[in-house]
Amino acid sequence: MKPYIFLICLFSQALFSQNILPLRERADLIDAIQKERIQNLLPKLMEEQNLDLWVLITREYNEDPVVKTLLPPTWLNARRRTILVFSKTKKGIDAVAITRYNFGENIRSIWNKEKQPDQWQALSEYIQSQNPDRIGINTSEHYGIADGLVKTDYDGMMNALPKAYHKKIVSAETLAVRWIETRTPLEMTLFSQLVEITHNIISEAFSTQVITPGTTTTEDVVWWLREKVAALGLDTWFHPTVDVQRTGKSDLYAFDGKSKYDVISPGDLLHCDFGISYLTLNTDCQELAYVLKPEETEAPDFLVAALAQGNAVQDHLTQNYKKGRTGNAILKQAIADSKAAGLRPQIYTHPLGLFGHSAGTTIGMWDAQEGVPGSGDHPLQEETVYAIELNAKVFIPEWEKDVRVMLEEAGYFGADGFRYVNGRQTEYILIGNKRSHLK
User: Which of 244 and 368 is assigned the larger pLDDT?
Assistant: First the structure.
């Protein structure tokens, strides 16, 4: 049995018993994830981008975002100046570190400071020994995640390299983005379960175990989410939000601060935005709940119909997922299709994975419904995950106002097309009812 298969079994058992893996076992699994990515994924990506070397340079507490995805699980930060070089060879990838120590289990150190005291010269000598034609570095105009090489380190490398090598230096922007956006089979095995954990936490938050209508505020639920994540030994990559829409005057968003202390009442439509970080991956989920009135056993028909419109916008978006199509082209067609069906869409879908707001194909922003320069021009690739984030504005005659059906679910795009990583919401969470809302 492969070591990572054994670790997956442990992970599954931990989930079944509603426990999170201990830190030591998490570290073993993260090592396995990184090994799979370096050995199996990176050779394909470097060949795809026609790069012979990929040089990553960073310093402690000022880490290149790409280096953060490679940090050994026992390293919380880089050390001193960390230089990693990935060299494409006939056998795959030679992963080395111009550092004083091995960079964890997967990247060996090749710098002997006693023989070559100058770290920059050691890097230059290694690069020359590989005789590359194209050397990629992390500089990017459109992706902060791919723009991790600071000027000081750029100058240090260029000053050490012979002039003949300067013309071989190119931006590794697309390689960095492809590295960040691409999910491996092992990661996808984990991702479904991470999203399941996220759904389970939201279901508990939107229940009478947490909410007492007429007493509990939206801010109470927000901090319950934070405490729940901490108690599980997990992290969240952003502060959650919970907000209310109801008949009469109410805010549509939590982040404007006006609805921060709304008391949750029967008849309210609740919305949350919540995600977790675990085992190098991140989730991002928005779901809706309805607080049943004493005489109710179901959400009102007008709200059920509104949710169906939100699901319809999701369908119009994901049906336009085609390999090679840019995010801006997907956005334009999805909005046109939604409007043709009588819907009022707003789409702001982003890549998801090693980061929450990750690198890859961006499909709209809430304030950029005509397209997003740069990241919106990136073509859709297979083996990628997205936070399918959007809303449908729906007029509710019974409330004499518009509501926004705000939804967000993790979705995977692969060779077989699009699928949701762990289902999507098609029914409201009913506070006072335990029926599943996911399909």
Answer: 244
SS3 225: helix
pTM: 0.90
Q: Is the dihedral of CA 186, 191, 194, 200 positive or negative?
A: negative
* Beta strand pairing call for 53-59 and 135-137: parallel
Beta-carbon contacts of residue 65 (< 8 Å; ≥ 6 apart): 144, 145, 146, 148, 180, 355
Burial class from Cβ neighbours inside 10 Å (0-12, 13-18, 19+) for residue 304 reads middle
Domains of the chain: 3-179 (3.40.350.10), 182-431 (3.90.230.10)
Q: Which of 174, 206, 183 is nearest to 419 (CA)?
A: 183
Q: Cα–Cα distance between 240 and 202 in angstroms, integer?
A: 11
Q: Is the model's pLDDT at 259 over the cut of 80?
A: no
Buried b (16+ CB within 10 A) or exposed e, 277-298: bbbbbbbbbbbbbbbbeeeeee
The Cα–Cα gap between 357 and 129 comes to 38
